[in-house]
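note to self — DONT lose this again. spent like an hour looking for the file last time. sequence + predicted structure for the chain T wanted, 293 res
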Amino acid sequence: MGISTQYEYSQFTNQIDLTQLQVYQLGQEVSTGKQINQMSDNPFAASQVLDLNQVQSTLTQYDSNIQTATSFVNQSASALGTTQTLVQQAYTLALQGANATQDANSLNGIVTQINQIQQRILALGNTQGSNGQYLFGGQVTNSAPFTASTSGNITYNGDSNSISVDAGPALSIKINTVGSGLFDTAYNQLTQLKSDLLSGNPSTISNVDVAGLQKTMGLFEQAQGQAGAVGQTLSGATTANTQRSTELTTSISNLQDANMAQVVSQYSAAQAAYQAALMITSNASKFSLLTYL
């Protein structure tokens, strides 16, 4: 085989390699539906896709944070609302107890009902979330924030720190309600109310206990309203993240997804070119052999 024939044969085999590579690359696009399957396909676009995927991963984490936070806030709001209702019941009982015509049996019956209300308030103050964390103890979430003492009052064992979650880019939301000044105040007011009922002091009940419970009802209503506002903020963050995620998905698709009609056509053409290259090389090899003989 002469030098010119070797050169021609080399050109033929190079053409085979080139068309075979095209068939392989286009075959991957047909199989995956993507025009970028590895960095070398389009380094710049592939880098953009990686960056956008990272942003989308961050949004997924935000959504996970929001789901956990929403459960936390909803359970908190529910406990606050139930406690407000209990304080309302105690307020009504206090009004009854302020009636000077109440006899001892009636007053004892009111005290029994207040005892039951207190136990429920204590339990609600120690409400635990879906992961077992205490909701109203600030950042002290692994132990009960309220404990009853022998004096008939309850004490707060938590702290006053906030619990916040990252719900979006540059968006940190405080989700907890510190229970100090709420559950302990209500419980201890009822302890004093029981004492005033048993001592037969309607004036104090009317002028002090009733007014105190009315104020405490307002505190629980305010706290529940704040929890509801936090829930709305979390919902708004979810909507914003969903919209951003949809935009990112579109951007990634525009960079990465193949035009299937075009790719299938190119793939068929590449297969035909590959078969033609094989045939030309085969014929050239036969011709070269005959020439040599």
